[in-house]
Write a structure and sequence with these properties.
This protein is of the alpha+beta class. The protein has 3 domains: about 230 residues, Thrombin, subunit H; about 90 residues, Pdz3 Domain (Roll), CATH 2.30.42.10; about 90 residues, Roll (Pdz3 Domain), CATH 2.30.42. β7 and β8 form a beta hairpin. The protein is flat, with a radius of gyration of 27 Å.
Length: about 450
């Protein structure tokens, strides 16, 4: 009796396993297929290795190159070499690559490795710290690249792939869904107006920074930038910069050398039940206009305090971060269609966006110049970097040639003053040097990471 029962039980178990194999584990016809998107992406996403070489902070270490150049006495040349890794996305067949600014910031050398193991050196074309984006370039032709998708059309719940190089594991693809849009996680510092990330649950880890977030069609819809983590590793959520912002920043860096930032000129507030009632609305939607900037774009177009802004160029706006993301996609001088509700009634306005100074002029990168005394190629520092570092003016070292600074690790260093005189241009620098009557020159400045330093130069 016992044997018959055991046999019957085994037969039921075999039948149950067979049923599971036929039903639950069988591929579904409507299941998402990531194969084509993955194949298109892995060859267009690269591994980036950056090397940063810095002299140690002691006087002899830092000025050893000066002693050797001026007196023939070798100084101490101790250096700290840091190596970092990240990812990048090829945007064109001739080698333009977008990545995060934090991946390449302060790099003395950038090495790009493609999926086919080909390694090439890259140069920085331009950076935008406020959006944490950078554009670099390698020599190449007929390279695999990704095309931009429309991040405004991305839907919550949509399948996405994160492609990058976590932990130096090249060509890694993970899948997930869009968990939320227009997330503000406050990682880019005060004054940034691009805190509007695409949130996903695709696994992203260290090394994924600068990699691609693509949809199931293989279109680039975001650049992976951050993770929500208490440990430094993936814990469930990651964040990507929307592709519409990426495309605009890249175009700006190519055309102008600087990011063009447009302003609508109003003070927005998140809508709530009280504000909706005040605006004569039955539902809570849009963004409440709490104030208007005098002579700003909104005022000139006719918008008023108390309006509720609901759409920009047809795109719904239901949060402050969505509003800022939408405006960030345009340049000063662009005209946008704004839908508002005023006193409970819908209305439409055309607003010509302005820059921070209240005009439609484009900001261009200052012209670089060579200074023979120092053997340096210098460039006026842009407003965004000045603001980030809390400076009023400065000249950035963009190239080191033959001279006393060679080997001193000052590339990227910003000279703020010569003998106590502020410098913001070639004329300022030459005037400060010409007025010096001693053999000693004091050079004050700051590194991109905020570390301040003073040199003593003997001529």
């Amino acid at each position: 009796m016992l044997k018959k029962t055991m046999k019957a039980t085994m037969m039921v178990a075999v039948l149950f396993i067979a049923m599971i194999g036929m039903s639950s584990f069988a591929p579904r016809e409507d299941a998402p297929d990531f194969v084509d998107a993955a194949e298109a992406s892995v060859n267009a996403v690269v591994h980036i290795k950056t090397t940063i070489v810095r002299k140690t902070a002691t006087y002899n270490d830092f000025f050893g190159a000066f002693f050797e150049h001026l007196y023939g006495i070798p100084g101490q040349t101790q250096t700290n070499t840091m190596v970092a890794y990240g990812s990048g996305v090829v945007l064109s067949p001739d080698g333009y690559i977008v990545t995060n600014n934090h991946v390449v910031e302060g790099a003395d050398a950038i090495e790009v490795t493609f999926n086919n193991k080909v390694v090439r050196e890259a140069n920085i074309i331009g950076t935008d710290p406020t959006s944490d984006l950078a554009l670099i370039k390698v020599d190449g032709s007929d390279l695999n690249y990704l095309v931009f998708g429309d991040s405004d059309k991305v839907k919550v719940g949509e399948w996405v792939l994160a492609v990058g190089n976590p932990f130096n594991l090249t060509s890694t693809v993970t899948a997930g869904i869009v968990s939320a849009k227009a997330r503000d996680i406050s990682i880019l510092g005060e004054g940034s107006n691009v805190e509007s990330f695409i949130q996903t649950d695709a696994a992203v880890n260290r090394g994924n920074s600068g990699g691609a977030l693509v949809n199931t069609r293989g279109e680039l819809i975001g650049i992976n930038a951050a993770i929500a983590s208490h440990t430094g590793s993936y814990e469930g959520y990651s964040f990507a910069i929307p592709s519409n912002i990426v495309r605009k920043v890249v175009d700006d860096l190519l055309m102008y050398g600087e990011t063009q930032r447009a302003y609508i000129g109003l003070n927005p507030l998140e809508m709530n039940a009280k504000l909706a009632e005040k605006a004569g609305m039955k539902e809570i939607k849009g963004v409440y206009v709490a104030g208007i900037t005098p002579d700003g774009a909104a005022e000139k177009a006719g918008l008023k305090q108390g309006d509720v802004l609901t759409r920009i160029n047809g795109t719904e706006v239901n949060s402050v971060t969505q509003l800022l993301e939408s405006v960030r996609q345009y340049r000063p001088g662009d005209e946008v269609k704004i839908n508002v509700i005023r006193n409970g009634r819908p209305d439409t306005y055309k607003v010509k966006l302005l820059n921070e100074s209240g005009s439609t002029e484009m900001v261009k990168r200052g012209e670089s110049f060579f200074n023979g005394t120092f053997g340096l190629v210098l460039q006026p520092v842009n407003k965004q970097e000045l603001k980030r570092l809390g400076l009023n003016s400065g000249l950035k070292v963009v190239e080191i040639r033959q001279g006393p600074f060679q080997g001193a690790g000052v590339e990227g260093f910003i000279i703020t003053a010569i003998d106590g005189k502020a410098v913001a241009s070639k004329a300022d620098l030459e005037s400060a040097l010409a007025s010096n009557r001693s053999r000693k020159t004091y050079i004050e400045g700051v590194y991109p990471n905020g570390m301040r330093m003073t040199f003593e130069y003997y001529n």
